[in-house]
Structure to design on (1022 residues):
């Protein structure tokens, strides 16, 4: 019995992403709800969908936000609520959250079920400038804010704690001029969180804190308070006391860690406690306080006193050098003239930090992309270094900022004006040899795009190992990158690099490049049959195994397809490669009207509806779509027959008044799930059976014609059920070809429930053979004997006849000697006959054939079977130009222990005359010759251990020579044609490391004709 499996395309729709049953979660379009999506498991195991809405409002500001959407069946409406992450702030920072685009980047961490949401346009105020450094928020599994991630953030140059020490003794006059100076200088300061704080201390004989550093948060508040400061008075000027109190108290009352400490001392006379002044200055130096000192000479000028000693004291108070920190004015009214100069000198403390990155990261937009790594999070900063971009990292121990020089080799200075946008996307791959490597895209590099593969140490050392370059200007190559682990072994098999704006056939179709190990370009994914501006590759989502074949799969978004409605494409993977033709296209129009930009974001890593299958989340404009996977099943159909062969000699029933052979087919069905399925789920299948007889008079017919119609069954997974199908076999002479019994299966309702595994056959064709009448081994051994004789007389027979006219001929022939095979043809003879006896002394002879070849002076007349027998001989001409007949003997077989006697009649030609006639009878029988091979293999050495650290950088010897000897010999009696011997020798590992190289080979040809050899490089798995 032979079984043939057929795959019928179109009999079922074998796609396992359900487009009929899905869930659409709607949100505000104006907030760009659906820009990003992430599947999420919260504390306690509850499943949520996170949806980014980067234009969401929080109060008066368009901060952006992230929604959490419950997937519980008990939830009414869309079940979404804002997390209000836009309200989270950095302390001591004058931040600007408006249009920060929080939720534009969203990434989750499966290890601790936390997630990170980024607002790359988050800005903060520094002086008169705003720096868009970006910010990210990590949220734990309970949706509680965990920490802020801002690796590009740097304290403002105006991050200062300024204490103004005012001399309020009686000698200061008029006070309103001092107060006016105080107000003017305060209005020059950038007061606010993360910038300048101001405190005021007034002294004379005693010291009074007018207000502390932390009392007021804006210029308006400080100026208002300054207007109410009155002169305290006093007969003495205790400047040392005022400085010491400011140092020891004022800077600690609201002072900030890391802020620059600045003291401004304004006085009009020598101190009465000058003995303490040296200690006060030394203590101030130790505390890192920068001191500006202003000498008001009004008192000295009004009394004509030499101010030299006073000026020397004030210069001593001021920090070095004096020309930057010392001021003197003629009187109190002249204080207003130094306001601008003092402000400029204070702000001259601005500058760059030691690593030279203070200005390079000011507009970095860190968080434009993000990726979780083992010890922190990697963020892309597209605006860093004049929009060339950078990659930063935040760990528990702090931020990691590589120096700008790390990128110079791949991003030269002469191309910096192009704005490479490095960090547009970041991810990582895992190499068997090198472990985890980081990957970042720069889609605008040199207008064609670039991807770098690199390592980044927490010390800030960034090393670029490899780079990949785009092929087309403006294609945005590197804007999306995704690693794919096809076989789930933790090692990256393919790196995908998208160029969603790739231009083809006059349209912006998009393209996704595929790189295999060692970052060698293997091919690309393209949608060739669609003429649309699709931006295919705008989103890439490697997903776990969808169809149960043991290999992970891929989903690619094309959000501009179908006039911006969008679509996604599902690609299956097999044996460490991504199949180039997509398996399923899901268009927005197939799901619901009104969807736009469907496929702008995709995430699929987990089961969202508790059926054990991986589901997809797809973002669109104002909506997030949940697509459920369907179980993939196989329907096993088997057929066995009773009896197992057709015995035409046994007619055990009647149909239509004729004796026939009755048979039954037992058709059994079993359902096996390739993916998860509930064991009690009922599955409705349909099947129909048929006998594949393409002839007017079929050899076999079903007893019940209704069985030809589709039949329905309901099964549980793992359950088997069998049906009996009864049929009968008619009398036939065609015994050689088996009868084919076909069973076609499908699902009753393919739009709901599980789907059929498209790699599994839907038609099973089982052959039912005829019994050949031979031994149990199903092999017949015939023994054919062929005898023939003609009616032409030999010369002796002819001459023995009493005819006088033949005397001379017979006398001449007798003198020649032997008779041999010579026959005599009489002058009046017009035909000749050959009597033939064919006997089968052995078992049934199948496909026995008689070839009759004769000379041109004969014409075949007839073949007549002489005795009563059921053996039939049918002859035909294969080539009309040849004198040959081919006759089938009792097709399809000649029975055992039978014989047939027949006569061949020929007429002599009247136009062709030859000196001889020849009739050749050849009996042909299909034979099977057995080939008895002998194969021997020797290797020396028999085993050699390969060290993992060895590699062959250039041709050479890395180990001992290995000698292989192969011997093959034919021990049978018959020659063998077209014999092929394949010898596989591992040459390279899958990572491209050389194992062996063939240095020489030699062939000893003993008796071999036409020997050809060739080689093909192969890789082996490590």
């Amino acid at each position: 019995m032979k079984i043939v499996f057929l795959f019928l395309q179109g009999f079922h729709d074998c796609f396992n992403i359900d487009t009929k049953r899905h869930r659409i979660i709607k949100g505000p379009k104006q907030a760009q709800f659906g820009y990003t999506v992430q599947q999420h498991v919260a504390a306690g195991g509850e499943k949520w969908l996170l949806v980014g809405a980067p234009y969401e409002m929080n109060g008066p500001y368009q901060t952006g936000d992230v929604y959490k959407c419950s997937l519980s069946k008990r939830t009414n409406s869309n079940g979404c609520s804002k997390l209000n992450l836009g309200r989270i702030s950095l302390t001591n920072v004058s931040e600007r959250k408006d249009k920060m685009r929080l939720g534009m980047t969203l990434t989750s961490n499966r290890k601790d079920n936390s997630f990170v949401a980024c607002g790359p346009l988050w800005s903060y105020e520094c002086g008169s400038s705003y720096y868009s450094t970006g910010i990210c928020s990590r949220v734990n599994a309970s949706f509680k804010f965990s920490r802020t991630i801002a690796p590009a953030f740097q304290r403002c140059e105006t991050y200062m704690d300024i204490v103004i020490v005012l001399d309020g003794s009686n000698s200061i006059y008029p006070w309103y001029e001092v107060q006016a100076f105080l107000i003017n200088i305060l209005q020059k300061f950038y007061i606010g969180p993360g910038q300048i704080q101001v405190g005021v201390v007034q002294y004379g004989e005693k010291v009074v804190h007018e207000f502390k550093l932390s009392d007021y948060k804006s210029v308006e508040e400080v100026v208002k308070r300054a207007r109410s400061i009155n002169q305290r008075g006093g007969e003495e000027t205790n400047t040392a006391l005022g400085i010491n109190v400011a140092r020891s108290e004022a800077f600690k009352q609201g002072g900030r860690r890391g802020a620059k400490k600045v003291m401004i001392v304004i006085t009009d006379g020598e101190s009465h406690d000058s003995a303490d002044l040296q200690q006060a200055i030394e203590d101030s130096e130790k505390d890192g306080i920068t001191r500006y000192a202003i000498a008001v000479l009004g008192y000295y000028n009004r009394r004509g006193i030499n101010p030299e000693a006073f000026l020397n004291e004030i210069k001593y108070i001021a920090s070095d050098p004096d020309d930057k920190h010392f001021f003197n004015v003629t009187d109190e009214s002249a204080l207003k003239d130094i306001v601008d100069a003092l402000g400029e000198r204070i702000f001259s403390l601005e500058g760059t930090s030691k690593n030279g990155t203070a200005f390079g990261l000011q507009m970095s937009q860190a968080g434009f992309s993000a990726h979780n790594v083992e010890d922190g999070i990697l963020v892309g900063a597209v605006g860093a270094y004049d929009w060339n971009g950078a990659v930063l990292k935040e760990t528990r121990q702090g931020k990691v900022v590589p120096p700008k020089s790390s990128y110079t080799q791949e991003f030269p200075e002469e191309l910096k004006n192009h704005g490479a946008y490095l960090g547009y996307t970041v991810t990582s791959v895992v190499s068997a040899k090198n472990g985890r490597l980081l990957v970042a895209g720069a889609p605008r590099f040199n207008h064609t795009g670039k991807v770098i593969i690199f390592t980044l140490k927490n010390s800030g050392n960034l090393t670029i190992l490899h780079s990949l370059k785009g092929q087309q200007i403006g294609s945005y190559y590197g804007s999306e990158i995704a690693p794919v682990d096809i076989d789930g072994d933790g090692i990256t098999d393919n790196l995908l690099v998208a160029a969603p704006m790739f231009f083809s056939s006059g349209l912006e179709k998009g393209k996704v490049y595929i790189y295999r190990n060692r970052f060698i370009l293997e091919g690309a994914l393209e949608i060739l049959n669609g003429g649309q501006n699709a931006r295919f590759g705008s989103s890439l989502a490697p997903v776990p195994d969808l169809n149960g074949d043991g290999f992970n799969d891929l989903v690619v978004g094309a959000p501009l397809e179908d006039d911006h409605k969008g679509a996604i494409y599902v690609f299956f993977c097999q044996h460490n490669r991504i199949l180039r033709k997509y398996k399923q296209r899901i268009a927005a129009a197939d799901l619901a009207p009104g969807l736009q930009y469907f496929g702008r974001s995709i995430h699929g890593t987990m089961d969202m509806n508790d059926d054990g299958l991986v589901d997809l989340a797809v973002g669109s404009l104002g909506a997030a779509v949940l697509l459920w996977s369907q179980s993939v099943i196989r329907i096993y159909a088997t057929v066995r027959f009773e009896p197992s062969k057709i015995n035409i000699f046994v007619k055990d029933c009647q149909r239509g008044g004729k004796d026939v052979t009755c048979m039954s087919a037992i058709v059994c069905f079993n359902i096996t799930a390739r993916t998860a399925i509930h064991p009690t789920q009922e599955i409705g299948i349909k099947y129909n059976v048929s006998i594949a007889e393409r002839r007017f008079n079929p050899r076999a017919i079903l007893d019940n014609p209704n069985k030809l119609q589709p039949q329905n069954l309901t099964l549980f997974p793992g359950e088997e059920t069998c049906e009996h199908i009864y049929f009968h076999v008619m009398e036939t002479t065609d015994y050689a070809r088996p009868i084919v019994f076909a069973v076609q299966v499908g699902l009753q309702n393919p739009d709901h429930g599980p789907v059929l595994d498209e790699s599994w056959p839907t038609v099973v064709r089982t052959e039912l053979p005829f019994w050949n009448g031979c031994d149990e081994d199903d092999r017949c051994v015939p023994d054919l004997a062929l005898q023939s004789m003609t009616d032409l007389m030999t010369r002796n027979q002819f001459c023995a006849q009493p005819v006088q006219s033949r005397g001379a001929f017979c006398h001449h022939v007798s003198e020649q000697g032997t008779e041999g095979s010579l026959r005599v043809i009489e002058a009046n003879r017009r035909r000749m006959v050959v009597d033939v006896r064919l006997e089968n002394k052995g078992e049934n002879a199948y496909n026995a054939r008689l070839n009759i070849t004769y000379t041109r002076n004969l014409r075949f007349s007839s073949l007549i079977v002489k005795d009563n027998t059921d053996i039939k001989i049918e002859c035909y001409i294969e080539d009309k130009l040849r004198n040959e007949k081919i006759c089938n003997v009792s097709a399809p077989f000649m029975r055992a222990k039978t014989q047939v006697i027949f006569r061949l009649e020929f007429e002599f030609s009247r136009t062709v005359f030859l000196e001889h006639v020849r009739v050749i009878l050849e009996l042909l029988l299909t034979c099977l010759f057995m080939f008895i091979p002998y194969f021997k293999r020797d290797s020396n050495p028999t085993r050699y251990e390969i060290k993992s650290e060895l590699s062959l950088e250039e041709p050479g010897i890395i180990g001992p020579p290995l000698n292989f000897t192969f011997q093959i010999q034919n021990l049978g009696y018959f020659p063998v044609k077209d014999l092929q011997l394949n010898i596989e020798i591992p040459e390279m590992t899958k990572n491209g490391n050389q194992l062996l190289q063939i240095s020489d080979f030699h062939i000893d040809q003993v008796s071999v004709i036409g020997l050809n050899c060739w080689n093909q490089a192969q890789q082996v798995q490590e």
Observations:
- Residues 784-924 form a domain with the Immunoglobulin-like fold (CATH 2.60.40.1170).
- Residues 647 and 822 are 50 Å apart (CA to CA).
- The chain has twelve helices and 68 strands.
